[in-house]
Design brief:
Helix content is 35%, strand content 25%. The chain is of the alpha+beta class.
Length: 171
């Protein structure tokens, strides 16, 4: 079941995350262009909440020509991928792939995933990060097309993940 879910996730990630088909404007602010790309890649929330927001875009301390980008996104309730954690894993893959593979000058992406918990409020359930060096490694090893959400997940720095939102292994 999980393998089927991950297969469906891979198909969806390629369909929605393939940067060649994402309409990225050539004009406007960096925030606007990233917002358009992420909106096209992620699609709408199935829970009636704002799907994502770009919280911050700041010059990277190590290279001011590149940016550190912080994004908060609402994890969907769709269990197509097997579990909420597997869905969040696919979302993270889509966000990272879109921001790194679209030619944006990104040095690091910080992700905050939210979900409505027992408090009935949108709460943080995971904090993730990926520096540009991981993107470079992926590109040296064939590019994002060679990897799915499950194979990229171990490369993502998982600062904190609520145990209920840990992706289930395909093994």
């Amino acid at each position: 079941m999980i393998l089927i879910g991950q297969g469906m996730a891979l198909v969806n990630a390629y369909r929605t995350g393939a940067t060649s088909s994402i309409p990225i404007p050539h004009t406007g602010t960096l925030r606007h262009r990233m917002t358009v790309a992420l909106s096209a890649a992620l699609g709408p929330s199935d829970r009636g909440v704002r799907r994502f927001r770009i919280d911050r875009i700041i010059p990277a301390p190590s290279d001011p020509s590149r940016k550190d980008v912080s994004v908060t996104w609402a994890i969907n309730s769709d269990l197509t991928w097997g579990t909420l954690g597997n869905g969040a894993q696919v979302d993270a893959y889509i966000i990272l792939r879109t921001l790194y593979d679209s030619g944006f000058p990104v040095a690091r992406v910080n992700l905050t995933g939210t979900y409505t918990t027992h408090t009935h409020h949108e709460s943080v359930v995971m904090r993730l990060a990926m520096p540009r060096r991981v993107d470079r490694l992926l590109k040296q090893a064939g590019g994002w097309n060679e990897y799915d959400a499950g194979s990229v997940w171990p490369l993502i720095h998982r600062i904190w993940v609520n145990p209920d939102f840990q992706p289930q292994s395909a093994e």
